[in-house]
Each structure stands twice: as structure tokens, then as C-alpha cells.
Specification:
The chain contains 9 helices and 14 strands. The chain is globular and about 65 Å long. The chain is of the alpha/beta class.
Length: 330
């Protein structure tokens, strides 16, 4: 008996992008009502002017579902056509059940559904998985969502995190295409630096405190702009693309200074548009790459079909990057 398996590889691409940005805009001045800091200091250290915090009625599942509905509408794919739903997040409302099956049900889908926990690099990890599924013929359409609600897992007095993190969701539908729209992924991890971005307290032991995210910002700044330049060049080489071929660079929106330093280290030409959504949206972790992608498309900095380099890095430490063609938006 021979076990049957799909044998013909196909091309995969992002067919549609949708996002959800919470209604509440939070300024640096509001952050500084609790945090011992100033608007000038925050902007000089991070580039951030505003960010979005979810309200009581804006849940992680709800934001993910809203972004997914928009991505499905743009792509022309219906929920019952989905073969898999992948949610990338580090801010689950609970450890069990996973968020993805709840999102799938909210969309009206009974597709396979699971969560990916790779910190701020989660979306790019999930995008690689989705692309591989489609290319191999395992699934025709895969929904990828990056979503975070970091405002509920922060210490508002922590000068290292309180002004940085924010909330939001972004989703793409990955499906078959006439040409490659998602290049090979350059990814990896460095668990020796796991203590750089952590949750405290842990889930072990008896305590009643809500866990909060803690980060050694200086360590991240020393690592990301240099190590990720090598990852960027690996992703470009794997895709057979040079920096001169790129139309856009869309890195994880961790910090404007990191983005600027990384761009210089990659040696991007001036013709390449660079995502700076962190200025208005803050650091939304796994949601930041799709949110930044949408911001560039909506503003006209980039257009559908443009060639873009995605790079993401975060807790783990985990990282991933790939060359893509940009999808349509609403």
C-alpha cells in the first residue's frame, strides 16, 4: 500500500491583508502621568509619539477576528475555504485553550487552528509555516494572524517597557499564486539570551500578581541591529534578491533607533521605503510587521506587488525574515 501525498509544488503568496487598530490613542503625555519620564525622553529613546491601547470591549480574540475578517474580504477567500488558522501572540488571555480555534470559530471555520509563540517574530514564523503548507499542497488557504494586547501585561511604572508596548492585530491570507510571493525564510534562535525579554512572575509557584513583560532594552539594542543585518542578507540571498531590487523594508517595529541602525547596517539604498509605524503605533510585538505593512500600503509609501524585506526579532530570542511581494488591502 502506497500512502498518497501531494507531489506538485506550487507558488505561495499573501492574497490579502487586514488589520485592527484599537480606538484609544495614548500619547506620551498620558504615559508620563504614571511613568517618571517625559515626551522628549521617550521620543529620543524610541521614536514613539503615540500608541493604541485596547479598551475593555476590545479583546485579543476580537481584535484577531476583526483583522482576519478584513483579510478574508480583501483576498476573496471565505472562512469555509480555510485549511488552517495560525495565531501568533504572546499575550493569550489564558494558556488553555489556544486563541486560534476561538478565532476560527468566530469566523465560521472548522479549520485546523493553533497558536505560535515566538515573541515579536511570531508573525514571520507563522508566515513561513503557512507558505510551506501551501507550496507543498497540504492546504490551499492558510490564515496568519499576529495579535497582541500588551497593555494588559505591563507595569506602567517600568521605564524599560511602559512607553514601548501597545496593542493591535494584523492578518494575511496565504494561498496559491502564479509566482513566488513569499521567499525562503532565514530564521533561528538564541536561547542563551532568553533572560533579555521575560515574563515575571512565572506561572510556577503560588502568587496572585498579573504577569508583566520585562525587557533589558540595552541588550536588545546591542544585539538586534547587528545580528539582524546578517539575517537580512541571508533572506535576500535565499530569495535571489539584492538590496537594490527592494522597494520596501518592513522590520519589526521595536524602536525607531533600532530600525534606523539596522537599515544602515544592511546598506539599504535611498530608494527603499522604510516602515516607521512604531512612531504612531508603538511596539505591538507579533502584530507589528502586518500593521507596519498596512501603514505603508495605506499611505502610499509602498504599493501592492512591491518587493519587500520583512525582518522580526524578539523574546526567545527568536528571529525570522523573508522577502515577499506586498498584498492588497481594503
Amino acid at each position: 500500500m502506497t500512502i498518497l501525498q501531494a507531489t506538485e509544488l506550487t507558488h505561495a503568496a499573501m492574497l490579502g491583508l487586514g488589520v485592527y487598530r484599537p480606538e484609544r490613542v495614548v500619547t506620551n503625555e498620558e504615559i508620563c502621568e504614571v511613568l517618571d519620564s517625559t515626551d522628549e525622553w521617550i521620543q529620543s529613546r524610541s521614536g514613539i509619539k503615540t500608541r493604541r491601547f485596547a479598551g475593555p470591549d476590545e479583546t485579543l480574540i476580537g481584535m484577531a477576528t476583526a483583522a482576519a475578517e478584513r483579510a478574508l474580504a480583501v483576498s476573496g477567500v471565505t472562512a469555509d475555504q480555510l485549511g488552517c488558522v495560525i495565531v501568533a501572540t504572546s499575550t493569550h488571555p489564558e494558556h488553555t485553550p489556544a486563541s486560534a480555534p476561538q478565532v476560527a470559530t468566530g469566523l465560521g471555520s472548522t479549520a485546523a487552528a493553533f497558536d505560535v509563540s515566538a515573541g515579536c517574530a511570531g508573525f514571520c514564523h507563522a508566515l513561513n509555516l503557512a507558505s510551506a503548507m501551501v507550496r507543498a499542497g497540504a492546504e490551499k488557504y492558510v490564515l496568519v494572524i499576529g495579535v497582541e494586547q500588551l497593555s494588559r501585561f505591563m507595569d506602567p511604572t517600568d521605564r524599560g517597557t511602559a512607553f514601548i508596548f501597545a496593542d493591535g492585530a494584523g492578518a494575511v491570507v496565504v494561498g496559491p499564486a502564479d509566482a513566488t510571493g513569499i521567499g525562503p525564510t532565514a530564521w533561528g534562535s538564541d536561547g542563551a539570551q532568553a533572560g533579555v525579554i521575560t515574563q515575571s512572575p512565572s506561572c510556577l509557584g503560588a502568587h496572585t500578581d498579573t504577569p508583566v513583560v520585562q525587557m533589558e532594552g540595552t541588550a536588545v539594542f546591542r544585539w538586534a541591529p547587528f545580528a539582524m543585518a546578517e539575517v537580512a542578507h541571508s533572506a535576500l540571498a535565499a530569495a535571489g534578491v539584492s538590496v537594490d531590487d527592494l522597494d520596501a523594508f518592513i522590520p519589526h517595529q521595536a524602536n525607531l533607533r533600532i530600525t534606523q541602525t539596522l537599515s544602515r547596517n544592511i546598506k539599504l539604498p535611498e530608494s527603499v521605503a522604510i516602515a516607521t509605524d512604531v512612531i504612531d503605533s508603538g511596539n505591538t510585538s507579533a502584530a507589528s510587521v502586518p500593521l507596519a505593512m498596512e501603514a505603508m500600503l495605506a499611505s502610499g509609501q509602498a504599493k501592492e506587488g512591491d518587493l519587500a524585506l520583512l525582518i522580526a526579532f524578539g523574546a526567545g530570542l527568536s528571529y525570522a525574515g523573508q522577502v515577499v511581494t506586498l498584498p492588497p488591502i481594503e
